[in-house]
Amino acid sequence: MLLTEVLPVAPTAAPGLRAALLADRTRTLTDLYRRTFPAVRRHVLRRGGTDQDAQDVFQDALVVFYEKAAAGALALTAAPGTYLVAVSRNLWLRELDRRARHPRTGLAAVEEGPTEAAEPAAEEPTEPFSVLAYVEQLNEKCRSILLAYYYFRQPLAQIAAAHGYGSVRSATVQKFKCLERLRNAVRAAFPHALPC
Amino acid sequence: MRPELERLRGIEHYLLGAPDAPPPAAALAADTEAQRRAYGALHLAGQRQLRRELAAIHETLYGPRAGRWAWTAAAAGLRLVFARWGRRA
């Protein structure tokens, strides 16, 4: 079955889509979700997955999609929905493969230690999650500004307007103050892990 | 901006801007590493927030409330049709 057969044609081009995502993320993602999820759901259900699997796979695909689009690294040769279905199908294939190789790893197996899939050193995967706690501890305004800029890649003018700053310069200074706060918290938390 | 923030900006340019930019001379290695970790944490936090937003969108479109809304809208539509039909009769 061709992807174009399962999805309505979406006219949005990548640059326009990026602008739409940055300007109104919820609305743009809702529109993409409404148009594309039914096709992903059908695909996953036909290949032995559940509703929850379809939801997980599609949301993973949307995260990849958002990050690429926001970074300006999305080169679309088809409609965004077609791209999303293709990514979801790949993710679901990979998940099926993973489940075939590791059918329901029980708690006992986990406690026995790492299996043949080589895990990175114990410190590496947990460390970013510890630092994550410091992001959660920032005040709402700082967290919102930092995420808007560094993850959602919104322009500073938009961030300034959304947070009530009179100018881009004020928003920039505030952004660096928030980043400094976060960096200092990280430095204090990991004094031995960082070079002097 | 005060000098500390300017240094922060210099490190940011080194870490996120030009890939071949040299590290800012005044920057401590520990500051650069802490800032790199801070960006990693912001990326993770952003992904978490995006996933929460996507779950909320799913709930809005396909959750039980969406179904209830559809029934309410359908009932309102039917009431409108009957009201018009009543006026014609």
TrEMBL record, chain A:
Record GO biological process: DNA-templated transcription initiation
Name of the protein this chain belongs to: RNA polymerase sigma-70 region 2 domain-containing protein
Source species, domain of life: Bacteria
Key words, A-Z: DNA-binding, Sigma factor, Transcription, Transcription regulation
GO molecular function terms attached to this record: DNA binding; sigma factor activity
Domain RNA polymerase sigma-70 region, chain residue ranges per copy: 32-101
Similarity field: Belongs to the sigma-70 factor family. ECF subfamily.
UniProtKB/TrEMBL annotation, chain B:
Descriptive protein name: Uncharacterized protein
